[in-house]
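Hey, can you fold this one?
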Amino acid sequence: MKKFILTSIIAALFYCVTYGQITTREEPVSFRMNISALKMNESTQKHLHSFDIERIRQEDREDETNGIPPRFGYKHEVNYSLDNSGEWTKLPNGDRIWRLAISSEGALSINLLYDKFWIPNGAKFFVYSNDRKQSIGAMTSVNNKGTKNDEQGFATGLIYGDQIILEYYLPNHVQETGLISIAYVVHGYRYILLPDNHEKSSGSCNINVNCPQGQDWQDEKNAVALILVNGNRYCSGSLINTTANDNRPLFLTADHCLGGWGNNYVKYDAITAPNLSHWSFYWHYEAPTCVNALPTTIYSTVGATVVSNNNVSDFALLQLTENPAEATGVTPYYLGWDRSENVGIGGVGIHHPSGDIKKITPYIIAPLSTYYLNNSESVGATHWRVTWSEGTTEGGSSGSPLINSDRRIIGQLHGGYASCNAQTQPDWYGKISYSWTSNNASDNRRKLDSWLDPLDSELLAVDGIGINIHEPIFVTIPDTIGYYSDSMIEIPATVLPEEAAIIEWKWHRRIDNGPWIQVYPSGKGPEPTPWVYQNSWQEQTLIFTDADPYLHLISEFMVVVMTAQGTDTSNVGRIIDYTITSINPNQEPQNNSLKAWSQNGNFYISGLTEGQSWRIYTILGTLIHQGIAKSNVEVWDAMSAPSGTYIIHSEHKFVKIIKH
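Sure. Predicted structure:
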């Protein structure tokens, strides 16, 4: 069976698995408010029609006969949006909440595919189960794949059960409503990979990546992700490094994965149709040990753009819209590459056969340079012909990397004949060496060189890297940045280490419970020339003109974001700190009686009075929790919050807190 036949099962897991999209990981707003129950009527509760499950199961049996694993779910085509469905509720403070219930009788799970999705700054979107035990959210403007005038699609993960609730929170100060339009509701009619009834979706000869064969490849495995297209497990692929070592989220997979039934027979392409907003990527989807078992958390990102592809060597290079390095719980690795035709002395393939948990397949016989599905060696041909020493690949492995003994990608899986019933049969991988220029293609969107070698270094090989391979340069910024008068902010001198140079400096300011406003050093955004300094930081005065609207938005605290770089240009770090200024010109900040500390997984906040509101923000200003004080000391269970710096804010006062 050729490997270009792809698997069609969706990511269906048992009910207690946590789904980890890039979200604020907070509970829905309605959970912590005394809000009336959703009025159940034709507009607010959508009941999906039944479908012929026997016909679906018969089609599944035919697919299995043809080597395609059975589907997980049935896609109901719908048209639900903020305008034509659901119910808006206005809160006493002027904020509004939109809610919609969707049910599909007998569904084991429900997930959603959106044709339009755009959220303005400050708004939040949640999806949760009817019993409130499962929740995904909040999705915010960070999750937007397009703009207000060029909105793109989106996808949210599985909620287990036959009824879900959608909730959209729109604060009073947010002027734009947003766009949320659901095109498909996927009714899950079967479970895959239940731990207590392990229904395997890949052949028994496959080897889990955390078996002994994978112990020497623990960094490299973190580059590989499972691709879901329109909710279906479809292909594999991997992050790939560049000569700039810049952790850019470039992702290598197969060109044929850009088309086919999973994409509704639309062929996506870097030139004609590059937008992959409907694609999702599962990271660290692997058994924790050599024994088959599901991970307890699914980490995912959504969206990509095709930057280059070519069907001759079957490569597709994507730039991911959501950077996995910014996803909580994800530890990405960027694989090195070799374009010199050095196959090494063995190596591995790492992949998701049939959309299963991550597997590893070793080889010890040097791959042959051939054309696709051809056994005759030909120097300079388009593919590597590989035979495995253990394991196999399957549908769903397409696009996964072939990694040589130097731990560098030399190709991505196109197809082949190997299976658990034919382990001596070969597979073919499109060669990095051929794709580099794709036979001297004139358009950069048909070759790899300009994308993987942005420095024009002409290197033949690059090693892989993890995130933060260089220690960032940290600079202490005073808690008080200075005071401002009618038209200027005075910034005290701060001296950088001699080996560092500031290459960029930006202000971020947050209006109380409002959107982030980005202010550039020139005060003239949106695309000013950054302030540039060499080896020192001088006292500066930021001048505003009367026409500058930002002057009137200065709030009680700001975030200063600086990017510093070592003199050898390799040591790059972002320096982030909070500062405080006065709310009114010429008025110094009040003494801060607010105090907070982290202990045993809890945040403790003191210095409050009964009825006083308080909020917890991430270091970049995302609101993750808020409350009303019932006593002088408030306690919040912060077990779900990752380690890092947070801001406790109440009535024009703030305090930094670090969770270890």
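The first strand starts at residue 18 and ends at 20. Let me know if you want another pass with a different chain boundary.
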